[in-house]
Amino acid sequence: MIYKDKNYSIHERVEDLLSSMTIEEKFWQLFMIPGDLSDGKEKYRHGIFGFQVAAKGNTTSIAEQILDYSVGSAAIDTAAQINEIQKYFVEETRLGIPIIPFDETLHGLIRKGATAFPQSIALAASWNTDLVKNVSQAIVDETRSRGIRQSLSPVINIARDVRWGRTEETYGEDPYLTKEMAHAYISSFEQSGVITTPKHFIANVGDGGRDSYPIHFNERLMEEIYFPAFKTCFEKAGARSVMTAYNSYDGRQCTANSYLLNEKLKKEWEFDGFVITDAGAIGGASVLHFTADGYDDATAQAFNNGLDVIFQTSYDHYPLFIKAFEDGLIPEKVIDNAVKRVLKAKFELGLFENPYVEVEKARDINGCKKHRELAYKAACESITLLKNGNSILPLSENFKKVAIIGNDAVEARLGGYSGPGNNPISILNGIKSRFNPDVEIRYADGVPRTHSNYVTIPTNCLSHSDEGKEAPGLIGEYFNNIDMKGKPELDRIDNHIDFGWTLFSPDPDKINFDFYSARWTGILTPSESGTFNIGVTGDDGYRLFINNVLLIDNWKKQTFRTVTVPYEFSAKQKYDLRLEFFESTGNARIKLIWDLGIDSGTSTRINEAVKAASDSDIAIITAGIEEGEFRDRAMLNLPGYQEELINKVAETGTPVVVLIVGGSAVTMNNWIDNVEGILHVWYPGEEGGNAIADTILGHNNPAGRLPITFPISEAQLPLYYNHKPTGRGDDYNNLTGKPLFPFGFGLSFTSFKYSDASLKKNKIASDENVTITFKITNTGDYDGDEVIQLYIRDVLASVAQPIMQLKGFQRIHLKSGESKIIEFVITPEMLSILDESLNRVVEPGEFRIMIGASSNDIRLREILTVE
């Protein structure tokens, strides 16, 4: 068989293997899921694209239950398990096609024993591509040692609206910084034989900073902002896979968008890798976008419009998709082309010749000392100093009493898409280990990041009568009309009322998606006596009755709201309860709530923090945000009562330094003037606590720079530095259009002077390079890094251009008093624009060449003329 002979070309081997495959075998090469063989080998007799291999049992291994379970054991378990799975597919299936084991590696492999590096946005804040390349090499070494050969990373979407919950996963708002970081990350993986999957193709954050919202960007915006990083990933970094986005682009779901997948990606960019869906995305055509009549239609649309591989979350889902293959809804040529792309990748990876890994190597590589040291270095380089009033940092050696306040001081949060890390160092433990033993460390929990005034009424307080006996839950009656008329189409027992029918109805088989009503009846038995607020939060309309008395009448359709009333309850007394609800447009939420049992200890916690800070020399407050996938933020202030905590501590007169833990921007109007110092530490990885402590003490001079713009208010959003000139101005009548902290901003413990800028030539031809040189001097008392940023503006162009665009950056180290000569080579590509016809050209005229410390801190400027 030619396909098993490595002496033939990959093309010949692919064609030979394809000619022997049945339609079932072809389908399974286009189907990827989390899993293994524990549910029965026979299910996978036709093969499969690959698995995200599940851990054995409830833990990675039996050994994990032992206290001295080692870091390397988890890695060995995974490697051995993948070898075992590969052995089945290679030796026991008809054609012997190996799988591609895959996993997530956004800032470290998401596995026990793998090193957890700082989150992607933190790596971007380092503005150091060499560092990112070293980090990615460490990640891929750990990944491949376990037999994993595809990474579903990185996220290279452009974060132009910081309300987006996934900003933390990105490299920020700028296309140039993003493509440079992505290139550094991807090249290590692809050169080491692990396929990368940049995502999500193409733009998956829409109006209001909401995840997976529909996109209607024109072609110019796509070409200028959203395409460049992806194009670099494929054409320069060599990425061999790409993941589509959940949302629609220009009215077509991205998973079945021929313009994106066939025309742009495969034809224009000549991408010869394979396209996968995001998890479960094909079904979105039916249940989200309403552009497909069922899963077979959705599957056919996807493959006929450029998709290659289905990513689902369970083996049991395959019947939803294989039908389109078996019924001829997808032309054989389309199927074969997709299969060829997958087989080509498997041959390129060498899986047919070398499907196994040396298990013991995984022990030595995963979580090794070298990688932990790199995690520390990455954390140090990412920390961003935003305010340093009265040079409060680094801390004086005279400080003998230090108050550490806030839950984030002890949690060691690692950020989204992270594994558990190896002994993550919390901020508190880092400070304790790094500070002089004579310093008294006082810790107070502070307040939680989240706070609610109400809770869902629990199941143990709700019951109903069942043949004369009391049984748990409420009787639910559901109607296919909005006024509860006639006989219910569905009767069931609901243990509590906390529903979010945003994508489906209460029962898709029986109840309308967008036109129905419900009535819940039963008994409410409070556990305590007292006057408590009871009510409903959700998408009106609703009515609440207790003992047949109407307490809340919100029987109208207006908006999402919370309505409560006070009611005097007696413990263990039984109250007749009735809740009625209707929905006439879909996307419903409803929750039955009260404030019984709400923790009222906020004042106590704040007082404890104030007490800890009162006679301390310094108060260090850790303040965090809540974000993540499908966790977008409408407001950017610190959540819960954290801002009140900061201000109360500041009122003691003790100097306050705030450490912001999170992956995006925070508004600070309510407290910024009351504190001396602010450090954004992002999600700093498993060595974060040590890196933060060393920064506070001055052993690390912070030089992180913001990869995103921090607004003064959410009202300014979206806000980004590289906007085009306005028709008039960019201010509001009650707020400036300027940010709180601009893109590229970050302070240092030292200071730098820029001088002596000189262009080698002031006039060049459109196809010439030119070099600009200048001197930079560390004029302060500390050694430190400076991030030098090159911005360019086309002064007069045929098509409006951004007021400035990042075109280069260098991170350099200078000792106190040291000077260096720096140069940037300005190329025609850096001066080029897309003309009116979207052709890339360099137009004659003047260009402002700007060198500075941020997008709003330009230190040197020269004029270059293109003749």
Shape: globular
Residue runs with pLDDT of under 50 for 5 or more positions: 57-69
Strand content: 25-35%
Query: Tally the helices: what do you get?
Result: 20
Radius of gyration, in angstroms, nearest whole number: 29 Å
Termini separation:
62 Å
Average pLDDT:
96
Specify the structural class. Answer: alpha/beta
**Topology, number of strands:** 41
Largest sheet: 8 strands, antiparallel
Helix content: 10-25%
Protein architecture, described:
This protein has 867 residues and is α/β, with parallel strands linked by helices. Helix content is 25%, strand content 25%. It is built from 20 helices and 41 strands. Strands 17, 18, 19, 20, 22, 24, 25 and 27 form an 8-stranded antiparallel β-sheet that branches. The chain has a 6-stranded mixed β-sheet with strand order 13-31-30-29-14-15, with helices on both faces. A hairpin with a 2-residue loop joins strand 9 and strand 10 (252-253). Helix 5 (129-145) packs antiparallel against helix 14 and helix 10 packs across helix 11. The longest helix is centred in the N-terminal third of the chain and has 22 residues, at 71-92. 49% of the residues are buried.
